[in-house]
């Protein structure tokens, strides 16, 4: 059976697994060696060349999930992003990026690209004209992120792919928030798909990794830069990541369901000013999300009423954890202004619509009722504390 004809959970469980030829174990054996033979072998293996048995197997699984020809595994999401982007840019080139993107990607561009003589532009909106007006004769890449971090904005992937084709550009997407369970960008014509595999692929908040999936032609170009930059992943973490991905389909679908219920609850709550979740009909990108996503994901953001302290609210939670990352099986919250987007500065965050009180909510797999009870008790606690403080 062709790998692309298998169901998503079957791909997660079986595609790319390394066969245990010696003992016939049910799971992939772990090859810890950092040194392999070079004589009389078909492949000269070396960890930095991304071709150890475990690295190769996991790359096959990720490529199959994204319905692409090839994949590469990296030491972090930012290693995957920086290597993939820089592989297609050189001095004198220009890149168009979506304005609403992960803070680490934004920092990479504004802090480093000028050193290499690379020009860049950020879109001010999500419409076709917002991107097309920025394209120049020297533009080589168009880069998007949907749903975006942290406001869950939705970019029309068909539109981006068509623009890239029209102007002969390489299209790239950070597909982390959706995961391949909810969104397959290659089906809409996007060339290169990037993930922080730390998030939904890992799913247990215990590893750091990145991934890229695309055509063999494009992966070859990325590989030639990657082997020089050295952003490979240790085989033990590769093995852990493959293990974790076996349950990704089940985990993500449970998180989708929880997130939808929580978004509905929060959007009707008297203490909540705004909820950003593409599964809500009120979300500006809802109709596009319905067309390109099979599920709306486990990520959302929300704002409390102006008189409620967002920091105190997070400290008052008992089950939901204030935590730096996202997409684990446990529910977590954070303040983008203090973490993922802190380096943007207050004025830039304001321009992007990222309020200082914005709370990013990564919904886990707990019982929805328990999460709601935790939010309710935290709201009660902060109201009591604020009354005492003000009196």
What is the number of helical segments per DSSP (H or I, 4+ residues)? 14
CA-CA gap between termini: 70 Å
Order of helices and strands: HHEHEHEHEHEHEEHHHEHEHEEHEH
Class of secondary structure makeup: alpha/beta
Query: Got a strand count?
Result: 12
Shape: globular
Overall average residue pLDDT:
95
Question: How large is the share of residues in beta strands?
Answer: 5-15%
Strand neighbour order, sheet with most strands: 1-7-6-5-4-2-3
CA gyration radius, whole angstroms: 21 Å
Q: Would you identify the regions where 5 or more consecutive residues have pLDDT less than 50?
A: none
Largest sheet: 7 strands, mixed
Helix content bin = 25-40%
Short structural summary:
The protein is an alpha/beta fold and 391 residues long. The protein has 14 helices and 12 strands.
Explained architecture:
The chain has helices at 8-14, 53-65, 77-86, 103-112, 128-132, 157-166, 179-182, 216-229, 235-245, 248-267, 286-292, 310-316, 346-351, 368-390, and strands spanning 70-74, 94-97, 119-122, 139-145, 170-174, 192-196, 210-214, 272-276, 299-304, 321-322, 332-334, 359-362. Helix 6 links the parallel strand 4 and strand 5 (170-174). The N and C termini lie far apart (70 Å). The strands form 2 sheets. The protein has a 7-stranded mixed beta sheet, sandwiched between helices. The chain has 391 residues and is α/β, with parallel strands linked by helices. Helix 3 (77-86) packs across helix 8 and helix 12 (310-316) crosses helix 14.
């Amino acid at each position: 059976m062709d790998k692309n004809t298998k169901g998503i959970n079957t791909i997660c469980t079986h595609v790319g697994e390394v066969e245990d030829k010696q003992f016939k174990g049910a799971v992939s054996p772990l090859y810890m060696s950092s040194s392999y033979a070079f004589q009389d072998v078909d492949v000269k293996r070396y960890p930095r060349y991304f071709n150890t048995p475990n690295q190769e197997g996991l790359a096959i699984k990720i490529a199959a999930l994204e319905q692409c020809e090839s994949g590469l595994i990296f030491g972090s999401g930012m290693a995957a992003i920086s290597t993939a982007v820089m592989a297609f840019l050189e001095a004198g080139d220009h890149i168009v990026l979506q304005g609403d993107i992960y803070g680490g990607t934004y920092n990479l561009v504004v802090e480093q690209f000028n050193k290499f003589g690379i020009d860049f532009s950020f879109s001010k909106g999500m419409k076709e004209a917002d991107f097309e007006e920025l394209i120049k004769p020297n533009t080589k890449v168009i880069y998007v992120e949907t749903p975006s971090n942290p406001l869950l904005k939705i970019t029309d992937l068909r539109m981006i792919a068509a623009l890239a084709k029209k102007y002969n550009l390489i299209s790239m997407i950070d597909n982390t928030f959706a995961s391949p369970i909810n969104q397959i960008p290659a089906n809409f014509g996007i060339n290169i798909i990037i993930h922080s595999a730390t998030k939904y692929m890992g799913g247990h908040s215990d590893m750091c990794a990145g991934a890229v999936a695309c055509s063999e032609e494009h992966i070859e170009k990325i590989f030639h830069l990657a082997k020089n930059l050295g952003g490979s992943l240790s085989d033990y973490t590769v093995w852990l990541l493959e293990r974790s991905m076996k349950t990704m389909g089940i985990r993500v679908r449970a998180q989708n369901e929880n997130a939808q219920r929580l978004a509905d609850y929060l959007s009707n709550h008297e203490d909540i000013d705004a909820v950003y979740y593409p599964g809500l009909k009120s979300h500006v990108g809802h109709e596009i999300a319905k067309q390109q996503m099979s599920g709306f994901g486990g990520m959302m953001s929300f704002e409390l009423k102006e008189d409620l302290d967002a920091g105190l609210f997070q400290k008052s939670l008992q089950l939901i954890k204030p935590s730096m990352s996202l997409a684990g099986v446990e529910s977590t919250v954070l303040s983008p202004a203090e973490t993922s987007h802190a380096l943007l500065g207050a004025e830039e965050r304001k321009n992007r619509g990222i309020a200082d009180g914005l709370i990013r909510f990564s919904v886990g797999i707990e019982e929805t009722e328990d999460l709601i009870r935790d939010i309710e008790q935290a709201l009660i606690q902060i109201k009591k504390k604020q009354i005492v403080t003000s009196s």
